[in-house]
Amino acid sequence: MTQDDTTPLTQAPNALPTTSGPMKTIAVGGTHYTLLGTAHVSAESANDVRQLIDSGHFDAVAIELCDARHHSMDNPDAMGEQDLFQVFKQGKAGMVAASLALGAFQQRIAEQSGIQPGAEMRAAVEECRTRNLPLLLVDRDVGITLKRIYRNVPWWQRFSLFSGLIGSVLSRQDVSKEDIEKLKEGDMLEATFSEFAAESEALYTPLIRERDRYMALRLAEEAPPGRYQHVLVVLGAGHLKGTSEHLETPLPENPKVERESLEASPPPSKLWKAAPWLITALVLTGFVVGFSRNTDLGWQLVIEWFLINGILSGGATIAALAHPVTVIATFFAAPLTSLNPTIGAGFVAAGVELYMRKPKVRDFSTLRHDVTQLKGWWKNRVSRTLLVFILATVGSAIGTWVAGFRIAGALFGSGAA
Question: What pLDDT, in 10s, does the model give residues 303-331?
């Protein structure tokens, strides 16, 4: 496919090379935006980018990357530079694990296809450096997108969504030709979530529709009409239609305001925020009622609460191959943290694991490679600590519900006094 000729360029359209992917030029004010739809697993798309930049036609290049992915591209070991304790403290462990899983999926694609996904973005970065051209990063941060996906889907779909993500990227089965073809139409996030996105408007909106709008707003900020004459916009073919439609309609005079609204994480519902405190109040009330009826019953409820929480959470850390001290600490901490919504069993477990098995330099240097294999998640101390955090958190959550129902059954069941 070649460029859309409906909008004239200041240079003749035939001054641009013919491309293998769709291309459309939109004139806004004194600036012409040439949107190139690329395939993220395609040597041809990378060549298209090089040829267009080499033509000397453009004085700026915008690409479908965020700061974090650009930094990761320049520094593959960037993940290892993070302070793990701060990751857990700030509640980012799940997002980091998801990013590692996505990276593992990307590596599998590269191994099977012989092409590194995002080769056309790398080509744009390299060409801009060589020619000293402004490089504009216009996509939304991947962490924000994942958070908005998480907040936007109903709570009962979240576990299946992200367990499906982790399961699919850790599978050692070959990625099908159909999945690779999907990558040629969209991007890594879209390919990973495509099974869900097609059926879920709640998922499709933050994953695709919002990003189309976001990239148009970023272009209006970073390359407003008149700042540059010709801007090359390199983005996945699946985003070309939506982004171009936004550029063709008047954008806000102050695009920053709307852009920042698309970066905000939707707050959890008041009920969801209150749930941990409500559960704590109900459990403590159960203990009081139990002791008021019978001292033995009261102690029975306390012991069951302690054992169920401790065994499930501590057992989960065993599944993560945690240090024995971590397992013991989690066993004793989980029953208490379950009654304190300000701290979780996963945080305690990860903290102890970091103290007992501090990751070494080689763990960070081999992290990206290790997580491409299922056993690598347990072998590498960094990824294993993430597993300890996640599994301890899940075990504690399950233990809270199981023990809670046991208390309710003992107090209000048919055998209650």
Answer: 999 999 999 999 999 999 999 999 999 99
Residue 3 has pLDDT above 70, yes or no: no
Q: In this structure, are residues 319 and 311 in contact, taking their beta carbons and an 8 Å threshold?
A: no
**CA 335 from centre of chain:** 30
Backbone phi, psi, residue 294, to 5°: -165, 130
Contact between residue 179 and residue 232 where contact means Cβ atoms under 8 Å apart: no
What's residue 21's pLDDT?
A: 80
Looking only at Cα atoms, what is the longest distance across the chain? Answer: 90
**Mean of all residue pLDDT scores within the chain:** 80
Handedness of CA 175, 178, 184, 187 (dihedral sign): negative
Residue linked to tokens 């850790």 = 170
Q: Are 63 and 69 in contact (CB under 8 A)?
A: no
Q: What is the pLDDT of residue 415?
A: 46
Round to whole Å and give the CA distance between 393 and 313: 7
- C-alpha–C-alpha distance, residues 380 and 364, integer Å: 8
> Which pLDDT score, from 0 to 100, does residue 2 have?
38
Residue 227, CA distances (Å) to 60, 67, 231, 251, 276 in order: 10, 22, 10, 16, 51
Q: How far apart (Å, rounded) are the C-alpha atoms in residues 98 and 390?
A: 11
pTM, entire model: 0.69
